[in-house]
Design a protein that fits this description.
The protein is an alpha+beta fold and 137 residues long. 26% of the residues lie in helices and 30% in strands. Keywords: Signal.
């Protein structure tokens, strides 16, 4: 019985420690939380706003501006099965950061994972610019 009590308290401690909210505007920290990578010659975060819930399921909302190589962009599109889509800048309850690109500026192509997902990616391959709005609920 003593063993089960200790095991219960250890499991509870791990659970409570792992459930911490993340709220950052640090681009490098946001990139790490989002993709688990550090900035490199291939991808550099410029601006970010990242929030992650303290819940076990890790809901999050991300706004990010990236400078990225064309090779990195192509890989990102392929890995995430992104397709050309449309942008909805009027997602209920969200306030887009001032630096986040509004609308669809010239040369940027909108991408989405599927038509039902509110997340979107504005990509300008030639300039190596990516604006990300991603939300997981």
């Amino acid at each position: 019985m003593k063993y089960l009590t200790r095991l219960f308290f250890c499991a509870l401690s791990i659970f409570l420690v792992s459930c911490q909210e993340v709220n950052t505007t640090d681009p490098e920290e946001a990139l790490d939380h989002w993709l688990g990578i550090n900035p490199s010659e291939e991808v550099t975060p410029i601006n970010a706003k990242y929030w992650q819930s303290a819940h076990l399921f890790k809901e999050y909302t991300l706004f990010m501006e990236l400078d990225a190589s064309e090779e990195w962009i192509e890989g990102f599109i392929s890995q995430n099965s992104l397709r050309r889509g449309s942008v909805d800048m009027h997602v209920n309850g969200l306030n887009f950061p001032e630096w986040f690109m509004a609308g669809q500026p010239e040369g940027f192509v909108p991408y989405k994972k599927d038509m039902y997902d509110v997340s979107f990616y504005l990509i300008h391959k030639e300039e190596g610019k990516v604006f990300v709005f991603e939300s997981q609920w």
